[in-house]
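Q: A small favour: would you put together sequence and structure tokens for a protein?
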Amino acid sequence: MSVLLTIHSITRWLVTLVAIGLIVRLVLGLIKKQPFDKTANALLGAFGGLMDTQMLLGVLFFVLDGLGKTGFPLFRWEHAATMLLAVIVAHLPAMWKKKADTVRTRNTLIAVIVALLLVFLGVSSLGGWVRWWHISGLF
């Protein structure tokens, strides 16, 4: 079970790195008035895919660990609800595919920032960003 939790915990860093790269690309796109190109699409796809993967890992851990060990305390429900909202927000840019590049870039930037803020909020409800070091036994 700790392997699943460790993978889930490490994946959040991938989500964060891709989100930061996407935010930088979108900000530059707005400043330089660049089109929403293949790079932006690839980063957006990676972000959405990683968010989906993270949600799947989280649900698996939630159910398996909850049934097998620790039950379902309130903080886990809060974390799950916050992360579900983050995944939903991360997929909102699909609604803006046919909008003008400026509108699409701006709206996608807002959605990614909100999704990332929800991720930070959800992780902090579990005890913060360094908790996985203790769980995995690395430190």
Notes: The helical segments are 2-32, 38-70, 74-90, 101-124, 131-136. Residues 2-136 form one domain. The first helix runs from residue 2 to 32.
